Amino acid sequence: MSGTKYVDSEDFLYTGPIREQGNIYKPNNKMMADELSEKAVHDVHTKEIDLVNRDPKHLNDDVVKIDFEDVIAEPEGTHSFDGIWKASFTTFTVTKYWFYRLLSAIFGIPMALIWGIYFAILSFLHIWAVVPCIRSYLIEIQCISRVYSICIHTFCDPLFEAIGRMFSSIRATVRKEI
């Protein structure tokens, strides 16, 4: 091991040989350390998630941003007591908040499991079935298109060329008689 210390039989302390470059895990060379830090590998399974902004791609902006004012409104002239209005607001807001948390606690992990399995199956089928089928189809259709092109050029080109020459000798003139 590079840079390790060991003691011999006479209790003298020696350091092990140090490589100029270091090893790939603990580089001693600053240039090599900078290169490795630039090539940092980010593992998607262990990345840190943002606990504040839980919808960074704004998937649910239209759907679930429903507040009390979006559901219950009293027009001018038909107002309930202020205390009832405040209690209704508080009841709606707290119930929505805690019931969502309760549903998330009960069904969140099973639904995440179901959606994880679904997207894993979808990815598997796309990688191992759909793309190879499409590639195979494109390879086969390329071969068929060459044969089709040869047939068209062999049989249709002479026919259309003859018809074109036949109609090329026709001259049309337009006269205006007064």
Can you describe what's shown?
The protein has 178 residues and is mainly alpha-helical. The chain has helices at 30-38, 68-71, 82-168; strands spanning 5-7, 13-15. It has a two-stranded antiparallel sheet with strand order 1-2. A hairpin with a 5-residue loop joins strand 1 (5-7) and strand 2 (13-15). 0% of the residues are buried. The model has no long low-confidence stretch (mean pLDDT 81).
Summarize the structure.
By secondary structure, the protein is mainly alpha-helical.
Name some characteristics of this structure:
mainly alpha; two-stranded antiparallel sheet; single chain; 178 residues
Structural class estimated from helices and strands: mainly alpha
If helices are DSSP runs of H or I spanning 4 or more residues, what is the number of helices? 3
* Biggest sheet descriptor: 2 strands, antiparallel
Strands across the major sheet, in which order?
1-2
Q: What characteristic shape results from the CA principal axes? A: elongated
Helix content: 55-70%
Report strand %. under 5%
Overall pLDDT metric: 81
Distance between the termini: 109 Å
Instruction: Give the number of DSSP strands.
Output: 2
Q: Which value, in Å, is the CA radius of gyration? A: 38 Å
Parts with pLDDT < 50 across at least 5 consecutive residues? none
* Secondary-structure element series: EEHHH
Mind sketching the topology for me?
Blueprint (H helix, E strand, L loop, with lengths): L4 E3 L5 E3 L14 H9 L29 H4 L10 H87 L10
Antiparallel strand pairs: 1-2
